[in-house]
Amino acid sequence: MATDYGTNAEICQPGGRVKVYKWGGQLLDSLFPPACRLCGARTGAGPALCTGCRHDLPRLIHGCRQCARPLSGEAPRRCGRCQRQPPPFDHATALFHYQPPLDFLLKRLKFARDPGMGPLLAGLLAQELRGRTAPLPGLLVPMPLHPTRLRERGYNQAVEIARPLGRALGIPLNHGLCRRTRRTEAQSLLGTTARRLNVRNAFAVTGAAPMAHVAIVDDVMTTGCTASELARVLKRAGAGNVEVWVIARAVRHGK
Ligand SMILES: [Zn+2]
Ligand SMILES: [Zn+2]
Q1: Which of 105, 130, 111 is closest to 36 using CA atoms?
Q2: Residue 35 lies in a domain
Q3: Is the dihedral of CA 149, 152, 158, 162 positive or negative?
Q4: pLDDT tens digit string along 96-132?
Q5: Rounded to 5 degrees, what angle do the CA atoms 249, 247, 255 make?
Q6: Which bound ligand lies closest to the C-alpha atom of 49?
Q7: Which-ligand-closest: CA of 79?
Q8: Within a domain: residue 241?
Q9: Staple partner for 138: which of 26, 95, 114, 211, CB 3.0–4.6 Å?
Q10: Which one of the ligands is nearest to 50 CA?
């Protein structure tokens, strides 16, 4: 089945595999001492960020409760757009603004296949989510890539975040539940209306959603059109509560 519990099995299994993994890690650490991924300073535990660079990351403090759009000053619970026309997802968590120096880390994740970046970013998001009082979802759904794009890139950056995130929070992930039924244009090249049309009917859920409360995991959310479309099909398949969890929230200029 497509349900994926990350590498829990490797961690929990007594015996050789864990040992080999640990030895491999120690060997790598001695050859390449852990360094901050932004400034190169020794961190003592890696791959990680030094304290200074961690403080420099552009935290999103005031965001709309529903779509995480950055709001200025005293934040109302929901932005004007969500009050006028709520998106199909119920709640969004975005840890950072999509701004330097965080954008560098996300580009490393998305285009450089940097193996340490998924765990690093997932760790920061897990820290935030552990502190919340609302119940956590029962299933994580990484934003699917079209199979052609997956073959081209070789990996799905949303899975690279969702896998360590699920492991940290004890939530299974399922990257076979939803699939892209057609290849879409890159959303970054399109305006808001075109983005909405571009992803319309782009997803299919195979079977009924196995959980009432699920979280879509992705690297960045900009207009929320893609997340909205996936949330819509998840709800149609039976999910009652759909959240969106992203590392960063971007805002289109002039919007
Ligand atoms: Zn640093
Ligand atoms: Zn909103």
Answers
A1: 105
A2: no
A3: positive
A4: 999 999 999 999 998 888 888 999 999 999 999 999 9
A5: 5
A6: 1
A7: 2
A8: yes
A9: 211
A10: 1
pLDDT at 255: 43
The CA 123 to ligand 1 mean position distance, Å, reads 16
Supply the pTM of this predicted model: 0.83
Ligand 1 is an ion; residues with CB less than 5 A from it: 36, 38-39, 41, 50, 53
5 CA distance to ligand 2 centroid (A)? 31
In a domain, 95, yes or no: yes
* Backbone dihedral angles phi then psi of residue 200, each to the nearest 5 degrees: -60, 130
5-8: long-range contacts, CB 8 A cutoff, minimum separation 24: 5/166, 5/167, 5/172, 5/173, 6/163, 6/164, 6/166, 6/167, 6/173, 7/163, 7/167, 8/167
> What's the rounded Cα separation, in Å, for the pair 137 and 115?
26
The 8-class DSSP code of residue 130 comes to: H
Q: Which CATH number belongs to the domain containing residue 161 in this structure?
A: 3.40.50
Q: Across the strands, what pairs with 221?
A: 249
In a domain, residue 145? The reply is yes
- Find tokens 């998924």 and name the residue: 118
Q: Write out the two tokens for 53.
A: 């660079």
| Tens of pLDDT, residues 209-221 | 678 999 999 999 9
Amino acid at 143: M
Residue 19, number of CB atoms within 10 A of its CB: 10
